[in-house]
Amino acid sequence: MNEHLIGHSAAADGATHSPLAGRHVVVVGGTSGIGLAVAHSVARAGADVTLIGRDAQRLRHAADAIGGARQCVGDLHDPASFPALFNALPALDHLVITAGTASLKTLRESTPEELRRTLDERLVGPLSIVRAALERLRPTGSIVLTSGLLAERPIRTGAILAGAVAAVEAIVRSLALELAPIRVNAVSPGLVDTPLLDSFFGDAKNDALAGAAAALPTGRIGRPDDIAQAVNLLLTGGFITGEVLHVDGGGRLV
Ligand SMILES: NC(=O)c1ccc[n+]([C@@H]2O[C@H](COP(=O)([O-])OP(=O)(O)OC[C@H]3O[C@@H](n4cnc5c(N)ncnc54)[C@H](OP(=O)(O)O)[C@@H]3O)[C@@H](O)[C@H]2O)c1
To answer: Hey, whose CA ends up nearest to atom 11 of ligand 1?
Structure first.
């Protein structure tokens, strides 16, 4: 565990009126894409933000980008490290886990080790983080996990990841009961333009995204801020628990 504090998130003008003002929000995966947008959004609302990711330099850049945040190095594939990490943090109000990659491969091509790695990343890692955070999470707080469109719209190379993210959706409904009054929800993004897609599509990205956008009812694919807005609703909606909020431009419908 490696913790630095580059100043607490400065409350933006008017942020003191936000229900997130002064709340401690931990974003696992807050160095990039959707997680970075979530971190930015809650920082603008006046939250005290902790970022968790694998790389100290990326954490520093992200903290700078959002105007300051606590930074902790942590890896979903090292669940044993999380109890010490959370014990060293101040009490939490909200935990958001967006961390993850997109390992898309057919079952035929996947080794048992690769299957296990996907399930570790999507299930064992996030659940271990939730477990480690529980001691520090206030009863008035909430947890947001990340699912994905694959849970409902299959693709040929997506069986393992689809199973893992569908499991996340089942898990939030059970955890909402087990962990009550802590609220537990998930956000399910459709296609969102983040660095994840750069590595996924490579040079074909622009064409692939243009094609995908044209097929969606919204006529565009998602932006990280679209998902951050939905996460914000889940964090602040005191009557929302056990919910999966789909933010996919209508991707489930076409
Ligand atoms: N973009 C989409 O179209 C889309 C659609 C559906 C679902 N999702 C899901 O949404 C989540 C966020 O995706 P994104 O598009 O924002 O991706 P991204 O830009 O690549 O960001 C991924 C984040 O996860 C962190 N991360 C990855 N592996 C990690 C590990 N083993 N331990 C700790 N942190 C780890 C990365 O941090 P470091 O690299 O700094 O460690 C980074 O902060 C992912 O779970 C993804 O599967 C994305």
So the answer is: 98
